[in-house]
Amino acid sequence: MLEIDGIAAAYGNIEALRGVDLSVEEGGITCLLGPNGAGKTTLMMTIAGLLKPRRGTIGFLDRDITGMRPSGIVRRGIALVPENRLVFPDMNVHENLVAGAYLRLGKRKSQVQQDIDHVFERFPRLQERSKQMAGTLSGGEQQMLAVARALMARPRLLMMDEPSLGLAPLVVEEIFRIISDLNADGTTIFLVEQNAHMALQVADHFYLLEQGQVSFSGKPGQLSEHEVIQRAYLGKGQARNQPAPDQGRPDGTAL
Does residue 49 lie within any of the structural domains? Predict the structure, then answer.
């Protein structure tokens, strides 16, 4: 479904991705694990068209989408739930959902309302808070809203960047239940996650990204969970004799 071939991307002179190869199979959950600064968010931004790759190709449903504008990528069927949720805080829940369908508003308003009704069936708490400003929601509710907003684009592939970040354990369990339910309903999911334990419980396939390159690809169980967690959090599997680049955003924060 999604084919990444030799993708390299950089922030100025700082190369964050150095030839990434991976694929996401239709109908499954593919998880990308790795330590802070490995380039996980950079890869998501590159696929979504928010960052132009220096080299390599991105294929989706047998079409080359490399360098395509973000709006075109959404039209092709890819939606991103960004890191830290990034809901529109000064808009209410309903308005956030409408914003998620902005590419469809001109011709299919009745369909948009049907999708909002469907989202509210899936997330009843959002319906209860439909007129509440998004910035006043709890962290878990904001994450639900970010997922629901992405679903308003009717994606074939839903990309989720650190959906459990900063959430309480019980909320994390609920978020992963939502991920499993979405996948069971037919949505293909590409998941970036630091919580390796939870990710391995839902993933069909996973990749380890270290120093901007894929260091391992396999199914849960091919590495012990201990080794996966060591490498996902600490980069313990980094290839020897390769100096670690000074990766990060221009402001010095981790990717």
Answer: yes
Q: Is residue 127 part of a domain?
A: no
Task: State how far the alpha carbon of 32 is from the alpha carbons of 96, 106, 127, 195, 233, in Å.
Answer: 27, 36, 32, 11, 12
Identify the DSSP state of 29. E
User: Could you tell me whether strands 2-11 and 14-24 are parallel, antiparallel, or unpaired per DSSP bridges?
Assistant: antiparallel
Gap between the Cα atoms of 212 and 37, Å rounded: 8
Residue tagged 């959404």 (tokens):
74
Residue pair 103/71 in contact (Cβ under 8 Å)? The answer is yes
* Structural domain includes residue 30: yes
The single residue listed with the structure tokens 């979405």 is 182
Reported as a single tens digit per residue, the pLDDT across 217-254 is: 999 988 887 888 777 776 665 433 333 333 444 344 34
Q: Which domain holds residue 80?
A: 2-87+155-234
Task: Check which CATH number belongs to the domain holding 200 and give it.
Answer: 3.40.50.300
Residue 187, CA distances (Å) to 25, 30, 180, 214, 215 in order: 11, 12, 10, 24, 27
CA 24 – CA 97 distance, rounded (Å):
27
Three-state SS sequence of 47-111: HCCCCCCCEEEEEECCEECCCCCHHHHHHHCEEEECCCCCCCCCCEHHHHHHHHCHHHCCCCHHH
Going by DSSP bridges, is the β-strand pair 213-218/205-210 parallel, antiparallel, or unpaired? Answer: antiparallel
H or E stretch including 9?
A: strand 2-11
Per-residue model confidence as pLDDT tens digits over 12-63: 888 999 999 999 999 999 999 988 889 999 999 999 999 999 999 999 999 9
Q: Is 122 a member of any domain?
A: no
